[in-house]
Structure formats: structure tokens, C-alpha cells
Design a protein that fits this description.
single chain, 118 residues, Trna Endonuclease, Chain: A, domain 1, globular
């Protein structure tokens, strides 16, 4: 079951990537890992770097995907983002955190939350 969930999640990330590219975002990295965690997508939107968490659900039984981005998950994403900014020499660059929630039922529904958390 775990492998199936991983494949399902990867498909959701690909849908989110396509969605963001269609909005004009440039993709800098996918599944960026640090000692603190992982960021699904790192993008460039005009002059901002965007750290994107993607959550994919089959149904709403356990809530919307964005609800799973709790404070603990946000902290991991932020630490990983700061690691990226420092190691790629983007410390002075403006950035934000977005969430893409995908509901992959009979119809694909994408919810996009820019500046989802500070």
C-alpha cells in the first residue's frame, strides 16, 4: 500500500508542476531534500522563489490535502527552505510558501493557496 501511495503522490506532484508551469512558474527543483526534510517543488514566480507543498487525496474522507500541512510540517518546510536559500546563495531573495491540494477523484480538482503560511 505504501508504494501505491508514493506513486499516487508523485502523480499529484506532476499535476501540480504542470498547473504551476501553466501559470508561468519556472521549476527550479523537485523533491528537494535537506537534513531537515523535503520540499516538493521549488519554483520561481516573477521575482520570488516559491516553496510549494503538494498534497494529493483520493477523496475528502481525511479532509482536504491542505489541512495536512500542519504546524509541524510547515516548520520542516521552512527549515528546508532556509537550507536551500543559504546553500544556493539566495539569502536576500524574496520568497514565499504555497500549497497545492489535489483531489484526484472522478474529476481532478486543484486548489492553490499562495502564501499559505508565513
Amino acid at each position: 500500500m505504501k508504494k501505491t501511495n508514493a506513486v499516487f503522490g508523485k502523480k499529484g506532484e506532476e499535476e501540480a508542476k504542470k498547473f504551476l508551469q501553466d501559470k508561468g512558474f519556472g521549476i527550479l527543483a523537485q523533491n528537494y531534500r535537506s537534513p531537515f526534510g523535503e520540499v516538493d517543488l521549488i519554483c520561481k514566480d516573477k521575482n520570488e522563489l516559491v516553496f510549494v507543498e503538494v498534497k494529493t487525496r483520493r477523496n475528502l474522507e481525511f479532509g482536504d490535502g491542505a489541512e495536512a500541512v500542519d504546524r509541524k510540517k510547515q516548520e520542516k518546510i521552512m527549515k528546508t527552505a532556509f537550507y536551500f536559500l543559504k546553500n544556493q546563495h539566495f539569502e536576500a531573495h524574496p520568497f514565499r510558501f504555497d500549497v497545492v491540494s489535489i483531489l484526484s477523484g472522478s474529476d481532478l480538482k486543484i486548489s492553490y493557496i499562495p502564501r499559505a503560511f508565513p
